[in-house]
């Protein structure tokens, strides 16, 4: 199939592109490179530099496309609190431009990368797809708004829509600018022999999903029809301090910790039930946290040497 990946030059998109190319699909990456560079791109993919708000360029690019995997988005929670209009503009209006371009060209199949942020602070765990949507920051609100537009395009224009709500992806190639995610920051600190910066003494619970498992979820969902929403996680909540302890084991010394206290806006605990994705599409996470962390440490070691 011929698949367009918006945001395909980023951390997750570059892994999704690789896995699709390995399966023999044709991949077109569409990205404005505002948060990434062409370094991440697989040479087998065709690259178009463009913004999702550029409907005319999108329409040209969409000709002959079978599926769109839509990952282009701004992703920083704290930035979204300071710049909600930017997040509404880029993530929500940008997506509506994309959907209009798809409708006009007649491409009506889309997989969208949503986030556990749509749930905000959960009252019960694990989170299922039926858990209430209560985003507590504009980034999460932008994902809820896009999900609503996608449902509308399914009802009005018969789009086939799959929404994947990712939990906490990690793995080789993670290089956000700035990096706000725990695992790459922990590993970089440990490699530099700096103390690991830790909020809440590491007592928060998260669901860390290895990037290759997450990328595989997209290929599993490629042929789904209708409208579906799936959590993509491991069914396991892990304390952040346990990740730190596993890194100590991998590095072979007791990594130092810098306790940064409490941080406003952090969710105390979240983890997914991904039972629905398993029952409907046969997907489940395969890579253990120990194995995933080892591979991720190897990647960052190779980058620093
Ligand atoms: N990384 C995570 O922890 C996480 C968790 C849940 C959901 N997600 C979602 O997964 C997707 C990918 O995240 P990522 O970690 O790979 O982020 P990333 O920043 O590495 O990738 C996003 C890509 O989108 C591009 N982009 C942004 N706005 C654009 C626009 N207007 N037009 C064209 N390209 C644009 C950026 O240049 C970047 O290459 C995002 O939708 C994000 O919200 C990520």
Q: What's the level 1 CATH class of the largest domain? A: Alpha Beta
The averaged pLDDT comes out at 96
In what range is the share of β-strand residues?
15-25%
Q: Label the overall shape.
A: globular
Briefly note the CATH topology name of the largest domain.
Answer: Rossmann fold
Count of discrete alpha- or pi-helical segments spanning 4 or more residues: 10
Please state the oligomeric state of the protein chains shown. single chain
Structural class: alpha/beta
Hetero ligands: nicotinamide-adenine-dinucleotide
Q: Please tally the β strands and state the result.
A: 13
Helix percentage: 40-55%
Describe the structure in your own words.
By secondary structure, the protein is an alpha/beta fold. The chain has two domains: about 1-170 and about 210-235, NAD(P)-binding Rossmann-like Domain (Rossmann fold, 3-Layer(aba) Sandwich); about 180-205 and about 235-275 and about 290-305, UDP-galactose 4-epimerase, domain 1, CATH 3.90.25. It is about 40% helix and about 20% strand. It has helices at about 10-20, 55-60, 75-80, 85-105, 140-155, 180-190, 210-220, 240-250, 275-280, 290-305; strands spanning about 1-5, 25-30, 45-50, 65-70, 110-115, 160-165, 170, 195-200, 205, 210, 225-230, 240, 255-260. The strands form four sheets. The chain has a seven-stranded parallel β-sheet, sandwiched between helices. The chain has a two-stranded parallel sheet with strand order 7-10. It has a two-stranded parallel ribbon with strand order 8-13. Strand 1, helix 1 and strand 2 form a beta-alpha-beta unit. Helix 2 (about 55-60) crosses helix 4 (about 85-105) and helix 6 crosses helix 10. The longest helix has 22 residues, at about 85-105. Bound molecules: nicotinamide-adenine-dinucleotide.
């Amino acid at each position: 199939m011929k698949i367009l990946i918006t945001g395909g030059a980023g951390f997750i998109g570059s892994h999704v592109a690789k896995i699709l190319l390995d399966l023999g699909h044709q991949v077109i990456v569409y990205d404005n490179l505002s948060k990434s560079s062409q370094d991440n791109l697989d040479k087998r993919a065709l690259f178009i530099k463009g913004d999702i708000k550029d409907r005319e360029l999108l329409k040209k690019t969409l000709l002959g496309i079978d599926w769109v995997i839509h990952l282009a988005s701004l992703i920083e929670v704290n930035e979204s609190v300071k710049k909600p209009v930017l997040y509404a503009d880029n993530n929500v209006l940008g997506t509506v431009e994309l959907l209009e371009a798809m409708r006009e060209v007649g491409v009506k199949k889309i997989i969208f990368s949503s986030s556990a942020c749509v749930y905000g602070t959960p009252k019960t765990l694990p989170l299922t797809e039926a858990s209430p949507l209560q985003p507590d920051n504009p980034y999460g609100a932008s994902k809820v708004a896009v999900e609503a537009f996608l449902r509308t395009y399914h009802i009005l224009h018969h789009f086939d829509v799959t929404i994947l709500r990712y939990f906490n992806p990690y793995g080789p190639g993670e290089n956000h600018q700035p990096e706000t995610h725990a695992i790459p920051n922990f590993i970089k600190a440990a490699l530099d022999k700096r103390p690991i910066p830790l909020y809440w003494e590491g007592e928060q619970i998260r669901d860390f999903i290895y990037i290759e498992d997450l990328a595989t979820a997209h290929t599993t969902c490629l042929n789904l029809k209708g409208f579906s929403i799936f959590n993509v996680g491991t069914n396991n909540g892990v304390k952040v301090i346990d990740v730190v302890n596993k890194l100590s084991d991998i590095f072979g010394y007791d990594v130092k910790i810098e306790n940064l206290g409490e941080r406003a806006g952090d969710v105390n605990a979240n983890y997914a039930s991904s039972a629905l994705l398993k029952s409907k599409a046969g997907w489940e996470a395969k890579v253990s946290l120990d194995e995933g962390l080892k591979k991720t440490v190897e990647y960052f070691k190779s980058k620093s040497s």
